[in-house]
Amino acid sequence: MACLExxxxxxxxxxxxxxxxNKSIEIDHHLYxxxxxxxxxxxxxxxxxxxxxxxxxxxxxxGVILPNGISQYTKQMVKxxxxxxxxIMEPAKEGYQITLRLDLSKIPNGKDSIKVIADISAVQAVIxxxxxxxxxxxxxxxxxxxxxxxxIKLVYHPREPxxxxxxxxxxxxxFPIRFKDKTDVIIATAFFQELMDVGSSEKWAKxxxxxxxxxxxxxxxxxxxxxxxxxxGFVSFDISSRHVKGKRLxxxxxxxxxxYAYVKYHVKSTRSFIQRRMRKRLQRxxxxxxxxxxxxxxxxxxxxxxxxxxGCMFMRKMINVSKPKVLKRRYNDLSGKIxxxxxxxxxxxxxxxxxxxxxxxxxxxxxxxxxxD
Length: 373
Fold this sequence. Notes:
Elements (H helix, E strand, L loop, with lengths): L8 H13 L5 E7 L3 E7 L7 E6 L15 H8 L6 E3 L9 E5 L8 H11 L1 H15 L6 E2 L2 E2 L1 E7 L2 E7 L4 E6 L5 H18 L10 E4 L11 H4 L5 E6 L8 H10 L1 H62 L2 H20 L7 H8 L16
Antiparallel strand pairs: 1-2, 2-3, 3-5, 4-5, 6-7, 8-9, 9-10, 10-12, 11-12
Helix pairs in contact: 1-3, 2-4, 4-7, 5-8
GO biological process, one term: Arp2/3 complex-mediated actin nucleation
Keywords: Actin-binding, Coiled coil, Cytoplasm, Cytoskeleton
Subcellular location: Cytoplasm, Cytoskeleton
């Protein structure tokens, strides 16, 4: 499982600027991340040696961590970032969980300086990881309830809670999955099913077994309804004791904290890949249609060119004919038409029919007429 960047980019940029100035700078700056994480950086020209960094971050679970601040274990983990540079101030500044006094002049030169500043910039990740580590390592009798271990609700990002259930031989981590888009739900469901198939293979036998279910597991009975209302189901990981020993503990904890971010990254990448493939396929279809259209246009142009060539050849033949011959031919045609118009239409037997039936009768009158003078 891929781990995301732990250091805060904005905080890292400010600390690098203070370190490279080689002199004190007047600065009083507030940074906000994820809507609930706040950094307060203070540096004064009157105090040339120290820079103060206060951190406020929501606790993973109020029921496990001390209500007045962070635990002693978390403070030790923060101080272990770089003991020569980092010092925890007691008490912390009002409104913050922890306040650090940084002596940037003790940071080694070269490439190590960037690494140390990056580790200091990841103080918020160290605090949250330490809280979860403490939950996974400490098992007390208060965690049991009627033969079952109590479920612990953790909130790393707002509206993205997950649950830790301690059992006799393993630790169960349950993630309710929610998406706004139905397409994301389909992609995520396919991803979880593939994750189950890969996790059950011999090659990944040492990895924590993964299980996906559309309904809540029995261990979450009694939890609030709003925490169990999902459209992407529930993903569970069975974490055994070997996954939280030594250096594996840090990787396991950070992977659990960023599982939501990893799923969203995978869904977004898959959607981009599908859209890119669809665009390529559409482009190929358009190219085929354009090629066909170009072929038809070329064919039409060739046909038009052939007609033009034939017309030119006909005109050349007409030009080659002498002018007197053309005039004589036109005169003969015109005279023939005139003769046909003036000549009578001769029908065989029509003369006899006319003499017999179309003869005008002669009228005679018994009355005489006298010419008047």
